[in-house]
């Protein structure tokens, strides 16, 4: 029996009817045309780490270097079992399936003139199989796992040379697959990816230098914008697709109505993934709150600046925001708290996740990363509407319950989770006018999680790794 992650089955139970069903009550109806599905990513599900000419990506390198035998070498083995996976997706009546393409499987050494034809054929097969079942592909061009060769050559996303490689790579994908694919996101969770990589939690590692984090974010924004303009000029008229950018949000609410806490939440949200990415794309620069806060610390030089030409390139370079949303947070003023405050986990990482100078307040006995906050799926779309306009489309590209040690048959808990979150989302759409066009649960299959391996939900294959 193929191991679907419990969230997907529970999600469909919560909705009541797969693929655009109705939650009880008119306000909770998913609108006509809303795309409903689930997602995966290449490293986390494909396995086949050295099969058919694939190159070594940054995770292959790091986990093998460290001697870690819990890795994505096999993962869900989707490379060899994609037909089985897609058949399951069809049986669940999913309308859209999100997956990523591995740069190292297409260009094994990162050189975009060295094409691995077997890798190219694999993704044709995946796309064709999805279309055979009338499932719409949503492709993430890069989900963290670029070739290690690019790190060795020039430091990966620390160098603007990575932008050129990424644009060439995207150009190849549009040319190869664009006549069959109309939904693309360029980079997954730019803000979190850069924060994790350059704080040493993910391959290739880093030294906790916040300037490195901001530099990575800057280069990825420029890469996205150049890819967007490329598609706009070269492919959009014929292929009629849309290109989005990916962020993860941990949007904040204040711990109290005190001015200091309200201001802390506002400041935290300017450092959040939504604003750190959308502010340049809508207004041409990072939020002034971010720049002023860093300047007050004597670190203003760490946040890059956009040239006039780059501002022209970046502004308006988005068709939709791909938003990964798991939990919001409650924050108080200051970096210390006498009421259960904590900056553990992601909040302790150097860069935008910690530079807002706020304290995250635990909700009950829940650890910050595992807090269940359904209001996030209403607050985040409304925050985007208020700050970046109602015309910007939003696609919820990841949402699901992460809990260490949970069992795959905890249907009631997961169904309640998805019901609560989807009720907030549909309220934002139907009552508040949020422009949300789709939702893909994370994850379709039991997968390797970068910071938790197979520890969030037991894997049927974990013992083989």
- Alpha-beta content class: alpha/beta
Uncertain runs are 17-24, 336-343, 456-465
Computed over alpha carbons, the radius of gyration is 21 Å
The secondary-structure element order is HEHHHEHHEHHEHHHEEHHHHEEEEHEHE
DSSP strand count: 12
* Side-by-side strand order of the widest sheet: 1-2-3-4-5-7-11-12
Residue share in β-strands: 5-15%
Share of helix among residues? Answer: 40-55%
Silhouette: globular
Report the mean per-residue pLDDT as an integer: 88
**For the terminal residues, how far apart are their CA atoms?**
19 Å
Number of helices: 17
Largest sheet geometry: 8 strands, parallel, barrel
EC number: 3.2.1.21
Keywords: Glycosidase, Hydrolase, Signal
Protein name: beta-glucosidase
InterPro entries: GH (IPR017853), GH_1_N_CS (IPR033132), Glyco_hydro_1 (IPR001360), Glyco_hydro_1_AS (IPR018120)
């Amino acid at each position: 029996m193929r191991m679907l992650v419990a969230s997907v089955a529970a999600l469909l139970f919560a909705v009541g009817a797969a693929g655009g069903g109705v939650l009880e009550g008119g306000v909770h109806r998913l609108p006509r045309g809303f795309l409903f599905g689930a997602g995966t990513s290449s490293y986390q599900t494909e396995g086949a780490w050295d099969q058919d000419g694939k190159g070594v990506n940054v995770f292959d390198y790091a986990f093998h270097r460290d001697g870690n035998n819990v890795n994505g070498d096999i993962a869900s083995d989707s490379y060899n079992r994609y037909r089985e996976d897609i058949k399951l997706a069809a049986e669940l009546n999913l309308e859209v399936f999100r997956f990523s393409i591995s740069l190292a499987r297409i260009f094994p050494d990162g050189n975009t003139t060295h094409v691995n034809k077997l890798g190219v054929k694999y993704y044709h097969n995946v796309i064709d199989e999805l279309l055979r079942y009338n499932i719409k592909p949503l492709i993430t061009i890069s989900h963290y796992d670029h070739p290690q060769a690019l790190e060795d050559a020039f430091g990966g996303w620390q160098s603007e040379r990575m932008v050129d490689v990424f644009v060439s790579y995207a150009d190849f994908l549009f040319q190869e697959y664009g006549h069959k694919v109309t939904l693309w996101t360029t980079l997954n969770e730019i803000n979190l990816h850069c924060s994790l990589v350059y704080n040493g939690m993910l391959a290739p590692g880093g030294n906790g230098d916040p300037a490195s984090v901001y530099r990575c974010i800057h280069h990825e924004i420029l890469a996205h914008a150049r890819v967007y303009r490329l598609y706009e000029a070269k492919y959009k008229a014929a292929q009629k697709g849309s290109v989005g950018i990916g962020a993860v949000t941990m949007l904040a609410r204040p711990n109290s109505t005190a001015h200091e806490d309200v201001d802390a939440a506002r400041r935290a949200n300017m450092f959040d993934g939504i604003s750190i990415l959308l502010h340049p794309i809508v207004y041409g620069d990072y939020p002034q709150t971010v720049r002023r806060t860093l300047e007050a610390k004597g670190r203003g030089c760490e946040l890059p600046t956009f040239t006039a030409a780059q501002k022209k390139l970046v502004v308006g370079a988005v068709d939709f925001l791909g938003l990964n949303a798991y939990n919001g947070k409650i924050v108080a003023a200051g970096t210390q708290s006498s009421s259960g405050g904590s900056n553990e986990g992601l909040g302790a990482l150097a860069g935008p996740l910690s530079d807002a100078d706020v304290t995250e307040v635990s909700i009950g006995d829940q650890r910050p990363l595992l807090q269940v906050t359904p209001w996030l799926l209403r607050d985040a779309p409304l925050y985007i509407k208020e700050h970046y306009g109602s015309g910007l489309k939003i696609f919820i590209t990841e949402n699901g319950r992460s809990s260490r040690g949970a069992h795959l048959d905890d249907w009631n808990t997961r169904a309640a989770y998805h019901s609560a979150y989807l009720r907030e989302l549909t309220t934002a759409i139907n009552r508040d006018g949020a422009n949300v066009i789709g939702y893909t649960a994370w994850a379709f299959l039991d997968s390797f999680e970068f910071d938790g391996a197979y520890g969030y939900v037991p894997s049927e294959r974990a013992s083989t790794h």
